[in-house]
Amino acid sequence: MTIGVLLVDDHELVRRGLRDVLDSEDDITVLAEAGGMSEALTRAEGAPPDVAVVDVRLPDGDGVSLCRSLRTLSPPPACLVLTAFDDEEALVGAIMAGASGYLLKQVRGQDLVTAVREVAAGRSLLDPATTARVLERFRHPPEDDELAKLSKRERSVLELIGKGHSNREIAERLFLAEKTVKNYVTSLLGKLGMQRRTQAAAWVARRGSESG
């Protein structure tokens, strides 16, 4: 059985190179190419592929969103995300979107061919080095991972919340308008997934006791 492939990359030379590699195989045929997300969806609906090889970064979207959209087709193609960027967030996003594989563009041509065959057969194929690092990150998240979401000013406001100061007192200490402080509080609570400042105060206290 021949494996039908859709190539999605905004660089024509990249698509041409991928086509040359894949079309040289007896059991693989490139059905269509696309330079962006909307064009890819149109091509996929016109000629349903078994495997979609998609770049992470596209001019009108991203490969992760495209994978998610392609997975709604019937029958859904297997998605193989191919990117030049060693991007951990893209890997996690690709997995969540139902992608079957994630490879860096530095792979050899034969590795790509093998990957297409693997995902077409229903197996999962992910770049081992990137996957291992992402799993390590989930097992041992940085201690300041949540604080890293906050701006320097938001961290200052959070610290003062932890000390029990009101918005007015924080505004006086940081030489800000009280309304500005209120906006910072709303923002940092949202980033930390909290609804009330009492939660933030308790969180700061807990971190302090843990570090002590």
Order of helices and strands: EHEHEEEHEHEHEHHHHH
Give the neighbour order of strands across the main sheet.
2-1-3-6-7-8
- Provide the gyration radius in Å: 24 Å
- Largest beta sheet, briefly? 6 strands, parallel
Helix percentage: 40-55%
Gross morphology: elongated
User: How many angstroms does the end-to-end distance come to?
Assistant: 64 Å
How many helices in DSSP terms? Answer: 10
Number of strands: 8
Low-pLDDT segments: none
Q: Percent of residues in beta strands?
A: 15-25%
Spell out the blueprint of helices and strands:
Layout: E1 3-8, H1 12-23, E2 28-34, H2 37-46, E3 51-55, E4 57-58, E5 61-62, H3 63-70, E6 78-83, H4 88-96, E7 101-104, H5 109-120, E8 125-126, H6 128-139, H7 152-162, H8 167-174, H9 178-191, H10 197-211
Parallel strand pairs: 1-2, 1-3, 3-6, 6-7, 7-8
Antiparallel strand pairs: 4-5
Structure description:
This protein is 52% helix and 16% strand. It has 10 helices and 8 strands. Strands 2-1-3-6-7-8 form a 6-stranded parallel sheet, sandwiched between helices. Strands 4-5 form a two-stranded antiparallel sheet. α7 packs across α9 (178-191). The protein is elongated.
Summarize the structure.
The protein has 212 residues and is an alpha/beta fold. The protein has helices at 12-23, 37-46, 63-70, 88-96, 109-120, 128-139, 152-162, 167-174, 178-191, 197-211, and strands at 3-8, 28-34, 51-55, 57-58, 61-62, 78-83, 101-104, 125-126. It is 52% helix and 16% strand.
Question: What key attributes describe this structure?
Answer:
elongated; alpha/beta; single chain; two-stranded antiparallel ribbon; 8 strands
